[in-house]
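Quick log. Single chain, no ligands specified.
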Amino acid sequence: MVDRRWQLVLDCLDAERPPFAKGTLVGFRQRLIEANADRRLIERTIEIAGVSGGFGPRALRAALDSSPLWGAGRVEDTWNLMGHALRKAVGMIARRQGRGPAENTQEAIGRVADAAGAPQLAASSLKAALDADWDDAAARAQALTTVLDCLHAVQAFLAAQPAGPAVERAAACVAVAAQVRDQDVTFDEGGSPALNRGVAKDRRISVEDGQMRHGRKSRSLLFDGYKRRVLTDLDSGLVAAVGLTPADVPEASVTDAIAADLTELHIDRAYLSSHLVRQRDPGLEIYCKAWRVRAPGDRFAKTAFTLDFATGQLTCPNQVSMPFQHGRTVHFPAATCAACPLRERCTTSAKGRSVSIHPDEALLAELRERQLTPAGRAQLRQRVAVEHTLAHIGRWQDHHARYRGTRKNLFDLRRTAVVHNLHVIARQQDGSSVSYDGSMSRLMRDGPACS
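-> predicted structure:
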């Protein structure tokens, strides 16, 4: 009602009343997600680009990369995670019993918490209710015991409640608290609890968004939430596919979801161990900066050895050959190395020199050879296009998630990819064919996802 651009898109110029309620948009979004039709929207933009001549039916020269997406849920430590989940469970029971208004006043929660035998949950902050000296190890252990007692008390309280939707929702919250306990707490032989050292695998970090995870983009950049991944066509600039995973999922494990007819794939080294690379078609060219080969001190590096992939022989600088297998380590005989005139420049080990062979050593050798030439380095620089695409998507989607949960945020990423592709189509037009508004209208008119 306040934006004529939306009135134009929705064909309701100068409308005096809203054509539909906000719930209509929510329901439409849910139907798109259930039918996986948001992926179809990306495909429609590519089809439109093909009709306009900017993107024909051909194999892709594509680049793949990822960027962080901070989650919408609040990240808390172990104490507050359990306290948050348990207090949420108590609040649901308070609502069911009619002991407070919809917003769950402090007094209503306090009554239920007292009845459950966990009065600490009545406070707005569990740590404040515990009032422990957090610098004292004994005080921390006692506080942890108290929190676990609260968990057991609420579990017993719920077990005595008559079944119903509110009790089921409260039990789900208590299950979250139990999950945090199982991942973060250990017990010694005497049964005394203590917090684990380090971070448990697949650790839950938020009560409200159970799919958020701790992530690392680089050695120095840590974040909490998700990783968004984008496959960009290097020739047209269109986004061909996107993906979204919790932040702790390695890059190498996500390429199975990418379905595209590729002739070239430009990636960074995190994807070298992926299924897409390891089981690639013979015609797929991989462009990536190879892992750096580190020499042991001032001695011969691995690149000083010759690999003959046809015969499966590894030859050292002194022309001694040994058979090798991919993914295994070659050990040269200790006696041979002891008598070698180049020993001081090769190894100090009494067992002789050893060389590790990567499972995809042939590809790494090709990548190292390619990046030694100006033409090869120029090819590697083409991957910067996907970084520009990620920057554009980050500007439209923002770097903080709009929704909670993987699937809704994947929907939001695909929506942003559609917007990006429509911008690319608009730039490709010469003014004689379809405009940006026309592309959007055609997408909404002809796209089966919107029928």
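Residues 137-159 form the longest helix (23 residues).
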